[in-house]
From TrEMBL:
Record's protein name: Kinesin-like protein KIF18A isoform X2
Pfam family, one: Kinesin
Coiled-coil ranges (or none): 384-411
Positions annotated to bind ATP: G132, A133, T134, G135, A136, G137, K138, T139
UniProt domain Kinesin motor: residue ranges: 29-369
Keywords, comma-separated and alphabetical: ATP-binding, Coiled coil, Cytoplasm, Cytoskeleton, Motor protein, Nucleotide-binding
Gene behind the chain: LOC113514739
Length: 847
């Protein structure tokens, strides 16, 4: 007991701090609160033993062990033996709440109905009933007195307080009823009548009392007055157990109608507060007669209540609510749509041992009852009710999603940086891709222009070479037709050169603009790539791909351009090949003619053989010691790069393509070179265009045409034949009178300085092979001048530097004035010099 007393001292306001913790599911079960009243005067007088020890606010011990008292037998104390005393049950009960003897009605209110009101305002029916033996303090708990108002008043007071706080958005309508069930009859305490009321059951509103009137109240004070009046009407009779024993079950009901101002949603809820009559033992109450009958009915109804509680606790499908009016009234509260609190009142006195024990057992059973409750929402507008339903479902979903969201919040925090980084990465990819697209367009533009530049350069080169060939053919020709042809051709060539100049200048400006534009895009792309790589190193592959795309585009443009250049070159080669295909036969005839006159010098023969050798190479036969030298010009124009365009681009233009130079190569020839001690073939191959060759017999010949560029399919057998004849006096059958020979070879005598007069030609005896001149004279030689028959003329040996004479191949016109074409040629050269593709000045002046 010392321990128990010590525990009591620690209680504050009757609520003992929890030590055992929550053990029941409060939400789903009937909430059970046990209140132990203090000993009354009678019990104190009897020094009644305390059979209920409240351990904390949730647990009590029924019939605890008593403090050991010394037991004496024959004057001798017997240790721990009391054979006359019954053994203590020492049963531990755990409830939702246990209110000790010192607990006030407010304390009970705080632990029972106060929280219930929140559920009531949400639309749940609520019910609280007090159960216990007679005189256990049920009425005191429920109704109380003026000094200690019961939980009914306190609940209603708090309800009005809540209503006031909700008045902004809701309209409330409150009606109360107060009835009693006495001897299995229902009476209206607020409207006293001897006629009992009938119970009705409604599927929607549950059990209703037919004919019951609701009294509207506005304040808790009205309720208090009403309760006082109603209690006056309640059947009470003094018994041995309780001077003011209630002989009926009192049911106080509050109907709350809530209408939302923002909608027509209506909530109709019911709060039932039931003060049961006390179970009693006839022996304890001492009732006889009418009181005994009352007690029997009370017990009957309470027995039915006990049965229903047992069935509900066992989960039975059939609950005998209809066994009594009380159970019918409490049907909703016990197993229906209601939040229910059961307050079990017990007396701690030993005299109420059995009643207390039974009450605790009932309370424990009731604690197991599972309830299924729902909100009572009634809407006048069907659509609104649907909306309400939808709203409820949506709210439920929102809660579920919020729960999921809260669960995944940690993951989100972790993933958030990834998402942000991914966004940054995508943004960089987008920006780099856009910049690359712009850069690609600019690059394609500048590459196309550079390609056009090179195509133009190639066409110019081919045009110049073609003109050079034509000029060589016409050189020193006395043929009027050729002279006329070249005279007409020169202005056309000059016009072409001017056009080329214009096109080149136009292209140059466009290339420069395009290149600058491309360079800006390239720099921007480089900057973006660098930034992207610094912020997102994982974009390295993407950046590398972008750069490779750019390089690929450049390579493809270069390939396209080279293919185009090759096509142009091929076309030109085909044309040239066709043109040159006529040359071998003519050369052969020419050579054989000279041979026939025994005028073919060894150097000429050697050159002729060299040409044959080249012809063999043209057929695919190459010598091992022959170095393959590339065409630097073609290399230049086919090398497409994106370096900044320069206005002083240089390339090695082929010397023999010097179309801007004077055509009269004779006057530009170098000094006479003694070729005796030199290898004749090489000399002849390199010394061309007017290079005088001194022969062994002191004759000098001037080769005015180059055979170097002959690209012919010379007959190999012819070459072999020439070889066989080399050094052997040929048997010339088709000889030609030298007088009729119009050769490009000038058969000269001994080489003399230019200022020296030309010695008269020594008449050589006519060789045998040329005896029959008549036959020769009658014959004509057809040159490659489109079937024009010209008379061969045998000229004399000329001095190396001839004075300028009028005619084709000379810088003088027929009337002796300088040719305009030479002036034009110089002008063109000057213009070309200013062009980026023009040769360097050093080359220009090298002649
Ligand atoms: N917690 C309490 N504190 C002080 N007095 C109490 C307490 N509980 C009950 N009493 C007193 O005990 C007496 C009996 O109480 P009450 O009438 O409430 O019992 P009851 O359970 O309602 O009995 P019955 O079933 O016969 O009506 C009353 O005089 C009441 O004042």
């Amino acid at each position: 007991m010392v321990k128990i007393e010590r525990e009591r001292d620690r209680r504050v306001g009757g609520i003992v701090p929890s030590k055992s913790g929550s053990t029941q599911n409060m939400a789903a079960n009937i909430k059970v609160v046990v209140r132990v009243r203090p000993l009354n005067e009678k019990e104190l007088e009897q020094n009644s033993r305390i059979v209920v020890d409240v351990v904390d606010d949730k647990m009590l011990v029924f019939d605890p062990k008593e403090e050991m008292r010394p037991f004496f037998y024959q004057g001798v104390q017997q240790p721990n033996k009391n054979f006359l005393k019954r053994a203590n049950k020492e049963l531990k009960f755990v409830f939702d709440n246990v209110c000790s003897q010192s607990a006030t009605n407010r304390d009970v209110f705080e632990t029972t109905t106060k929280d219930m009101l929140s559920a009531l305002m949400e639309g749940y029916n609520c019910s609280v009933f007090v159960y216990g033996a007679t005189g256990a303090g049920k009425t005191f708990t429920m109704i109380g007195n003026s000094e200690h108002p019961g939980i009914t008043y306190l609940t209603m007071e708090h309800l009005f307080y809540i209503i006031n706080s909700y008045e902004k958005d809701r309209e409330f309508d409150i009606g109360v009823s107060y009835i009693e069930v006495y001897n299995e009859n229902v009476y209206d305490l607020l409207k006293p009548s001897n006629t009992p009321l009938q119970l009705r059951e409604d599927s929607k509103y549950g059990v209703m009392v037919a004919g019951l009137t609701l009294n509207n109240i506005k304040t808790a004070r009205e309720l208090l007055n009403m309760l006082e009046n109603g209690n006056k009407n309640r059947t009470q009779h003094p018994t041995d157990a309780n001077a003011e024993s209630s002989r009926s079950h009192a049911v106080f009901q509050v109907y709350v109608k809530m209408r939302y101002k923002t909608s027509s949603q209506l909530r109709l809820v019911k709060l039932s507060m039931i003060d049961l009559a006390g179970s009693e033992r006839a022996s304890a109450t001492g009732c006889v007669g009418e009181r005994f009958k009352e007690g029997a009915n009370i017990n009957k109804s309470l027995l039915s209540l006990g049965n229903c509680i047992n069935k509900l606790a066992d989960g039975s499908s059939y609950i005998p609510y209809r066994d009594s009016k009380l159970t019918r009234l409490l049907k909703d509260s016990l197993g229906g749509n209601c939040k229910t609190v059961m307050i079990a009142n017990v007396s701690p006195a030993h005299i109420s041992y059995e009643d207390t024990y039974n009450t605790l057992k009932y309370a424990a059973r009731a604690n197991k009852i599972q309830l299924s409750i729902k909100k009572n929402i009634v809407d006048g507008d069907m659509r609104l009710s649907q909306y309400v339903k939808i709203n409820e479902e949506l709210k439920k979903k929102v809660k579920e999603l919020e729960a999921k969201l809260s669960l995944s919040s940690v993951k989100q925090v972790v993933r958030e940086p990834d998402t942000t980084k991914e966004k940054v990465r995508l943004e960089w990819r987008r920006r780099v891709a856009e910049a690359e697209a712009s850069h690609g367009a600019a690059q394609a533009g500048v590459l196309a222009l550079l390609g056009r530049q090179r195509v133009l350069a190639l066409r110019r080169r081919l045009r110049a070479r073609a003109r050079d060939h034509a000029a060589r053919l016409a050189h020193r020709s006395s043929c009027d037709v050729l002279d006329q042809m070249c005279s007409e051709d020169i202005p056309r060539q000059e016009r072409a050169a001017e056009n080329y100049m214009k096109q080149s200048a136009h292209l140059d400006s466009k290339v420069l603009v395009a290149w600058n534009n491309w360079d800006e895009h390239r720099q921007k792309l480089d900057r973006l790539c660098s930034q992207a790589l610094s912020e997102c190193p994982e974009l390295s592959d993407f950046i590398e791909k972008i750069r490779m795309q750019s390089e690929l585009r450049e390579v493809k443009a270069r390939d396209d351009m080279r293919y185009k250049l090759l096509c142009i070159e091929n076309e030109e080669i085909n044309t040239f090949t066709e043109y040159m295909s006529e040359m071998p036969s003519m050369l052969k005839k020419l050579y054989l003619t000279l041979k026939g006159y025994d005028k073919a010098p060894p150097a000429l023969t050697a050159e002729y053989l060299e040409i044959m050798k080249k012809a063999k190479q043209a057929k695919g036969i190459s010598w091992s010691d022959t170095e393959i030298e590339g065409d630097s010009h073609f290399k230049f124009i086919s090398n497409l790069n994106l370096d900044k365009p320069s206005t002083t681009l240089e390339y090695n233009y082929p010397n023999h393509d010097d179309v801007n130079g004077t055509i009269d190569v004779v006057t530009d020839s170098e000094d006479l070179t003694d070729v005796e001690n030199r290898e004749p073939v090489r000399l002849c191959a390199t010394k061309r265009k007017g290079t005088p060759i001194k022969l062994a017999n002191n004759e000098t010949i001037i080769i005015n045409d180059s055979f170097e560029s002959l690209d012919t399919t010379r007959n190999l057998n012819s070459a072999k034949k020439v070889k066989r004849e080399y050094g052997i006096a040929p048997e010339v059958e088709n000889f030609i009178d030298p007088k009729d020979l119009n050769s490009t070879f000038v058969l000269g005598g001994k080489v003399e300085p230019a200022h020296k007069p030309v010695k008269p030609e020594k008449v050589e005896p006519v060789k045998r092979g040329l005896i029959d001149r008549t036959n020769t004279i009658q014959r004509t030689v057809t040159f490659n001048d489109k079937a024009k028959i010209v008379k061969p003329v045998v000229g004399r040996a000329l001095p190396f530097r001839r004075p300028p004479t009028a005619g084709f191949g000379s810088s003088l016109a027929r009337d002796g004035t300088p040719l305009q074409r030479n002036i034009q040629a110089v002008r063109t050269r000057d213009r070309v010099q200013a062009h980026p593709y023009a040769r360097p000045a050093a080359l220009q002046h090298r002649k």
